[in-house]
Amino acid sequence: MKKLFVLLIALTLGLSLAACAENTEAGELKEEGKVLNIRVWNDEFIGRFRTFYPGYLETKANGQDLLDDGTVVNWIEVANDNNGYQNALDTALLNQDSAAADDKIDMFLIEADYAKKYANDTYAMDVIGELGIPEHTLSQQYQYTKDIVTDDSGILRAVSWQATPGLFAYRTDIAEEVLGVSDPEDVQALLDSWEKFDAVAEDMKAEDYVMISGFDDAYRAYSNNTSAPWVNEDGEIIVDNQIIEWIKQTKTYTDNGYNNQTGLWSDGWFKDMGPEGNAFGFFFSTWGINFTLKDASKADAEGPEEVGNGLYGKYHVIEGPASFYWGGTWLVAAKGTDNPTLVRDIMMKMTANEKIATDITLQTEDYTNHMAAMDAIANDEEYGSKFLGGQNHIALFNESASTIDMKNISPYDQGLNESIQQSFKDYFLGTITWNQAWAAFEEKISTLYPELELKTIPADPFA
Q1: Please, what are the domains in the chain?
Q2: Per residue in 237-262, pLDDT tens?
Q3: How many helices (H) does the chain have, and how many strands (E)?
């Protein structure tokens, strides 16, 4: 019996050691690094992480975060403008293999406009096959948020904590003064087509208001309704009719004084969101309302945020003349990371945990990527955004989130979208011609994407 007992112990120990060896070989028991490098372009996710990730402990004086297991999170922030974030990320990824363990990129964030460029086997780990995130834990995420970061082999390469349907946010005080109504149902009835939208723009002008702040405000409501991608399979740039319609509207609005000639992210644009502005409304997706408009409308305010600077509670949202989406942020586990287990945990908790998704929405008013959580809030009769005057904007977002279709995106979208907007500003102002604007566009894209070609310049719709 003693010999048999010893034999069983030896056999059990042998099997355990074999299993341990196998796990170590698979990377499961491999000691991970103590520095987690995350690349971002702004502080939105940093704030989400510090508030909602269970492992966050504190932020050190140098801006790094300390986790409860002793890991240091190093945030590397590079602005998105003019492809700056992508350029810096590309350089870092080229050096990934040779970088020291504590210098390797562990996780990086991407936007919809360039998701296809990075969500592939070259840069991103397989979320399910390599990281080991169970597929069923992602079942409540909106399908489009998975489709956009699924590569040509059907492998999921990233996950997102948010879905980004778009809405039109308007000022109720201006609506009441000019239109005689301010409730969302009544305002939507007056703005449910572009023809009606243009008519109301004329009414706004008559009362010394502008319909929208600047050149680019309506851009995504047009560009995200195109019939085909920016670039075809032959590397040719295709200018969709929706882009032409945006140009036509913006030129007309500028000539008629229906906008204030501002640009996205400019000081004038932000000013128009506050009490000194005279803009009726803004096209925004989820992040734009809670992360941009909300901050701008209570900037430099004293007292409780519910009071703000006089506009807190005076914005409402409607679908507007066209359904659209705008942006979104995905988390990518970088190939070569020495912290796959920690990255896996962050992805699962920040994008697939129902309680955390619910908490993010209730505390920040963001629209999170968990259908059950959003359904519950959308149907909660007691829920309402104080910033939006008690309106349940989640219910509106919920109606359109499941219909978002990103089949027409391309890896070149950020550069092409920014270039077309920049190139036509002088045309809107009347200082260059139609053909000169297209020449400026061609010059920009030849630098960004020399492999692409604009073969046909669209005809001038005002000629």
Answers
A1: 35-163+327-378 (3.40.190.10), 166-324 (3.40.190.10)
A2: 999 999 999 999 999 999 999 999 99
A3: 20, 10
